[in-house]
Design a protein that fits this description.
By secondary structure, the protein is α+β, with helices and mostly antiparallel strands. The protein has 2 domains: 1-92, no CATH class; 95-137, no CATH class. 23% of the residues lie in helices and 27% in strands. The protein has 4 helices and 5 strands; from the N terminus they run E-E-E-E-E-H-H-H-H. The protein has helices at 103-115, 118-124, 129-146, 175-179, and strands at residues 13-21, 26-33, 51-64, 67-80, 85-88. Strands 1, 2, 3, 4 and 5 form a 5-stranded mixed β-sheet that branches. The chain starts with 12 loop residues before the first strand and ends with a helix. The structure holds zinc ion.
Length: 183
């Protein structure tokens, strides 16, 4: 069977191993932290000094063909002198909307949420619907903080209907009658 091409790159990490479990429909990409990767607080960006621990991440990555793909890495924690507490290091490719996905996979799903129901996207990519809803909620919240409501220049009303009879006295659909409501 032909091997899957290695075209993935992760800032600050080397691809240590690329495990294909094709009969199980999944691929694992194992990363090793580069020695010169900056060790910065993920929250404020301050450089941290002492390592306080580490934990394993298994980020869901864009599927490769139809194989589920996960990125494995150790994420280190250190003491941030600005936040005055232990923090995880910044990793550039973790999505800002969810800690479970890579940024490119979250971006890809976000684009699908724009054109399809979240429940259908979740079904297609075998995600829990609640996970997909959380992702979409965080994505929309982030977009809303960047959105500026434009100045109101005109207000229009289309088809307001709240009555029992056909027409009020004097009502008309003529253009001159409708124009009389314009300000
Ligand atoms: Zn910090």
């Amino acid at each position: 069977m032909p091997s899957i091409p290695r075209f993935v790159a992760y800032e600050g990490y080397e691809v240590l191993d690329f495990k294909e479990f094709l009969s199980q429909g999944r691929i694992e990409i194992h990363l090793e932290r580069k020695k010169d990767k900056p060790f910065n607080c993920y929250r404020c960006g301050t450089q941290m000094m002492a390592i306080r621990g580490r934990y394993r991440l298994r980020l869901k990555e864009m599927p490769i063909f139809n194989y589920e793909c996960r990125v494995w890495l150790w994420r280190y924690q250190g003491y941030c002198s600005k936040c005055k507490k232990a923090r995880s290091e910044a990793v550039s490719f973790i999505s800002s909307d969810t800690p479970h996905l890579t940024d490119r996979y979250a971006w890809f799903l976000g684009n699908l949420f724009e054109i399809a129901a979240v429940s259908r996207v979740a079904e297609m990519f075998q995600m829990k619907e609640s996970t997909a809803l959380d992702l979409d909620f965080n994505r929309l919240k982030r977009l809303l903080t960047q959105y500026k409501i434009p100045e109101v220049t005109e207000i229009s009303v289309d088809e307001v209907y709240a009555r029992k009879h056909d027409k009020f006295e004097g009502e008309s659909r003529s253009r001159s009658f409708l124009l009389s409501f314009q300000t």
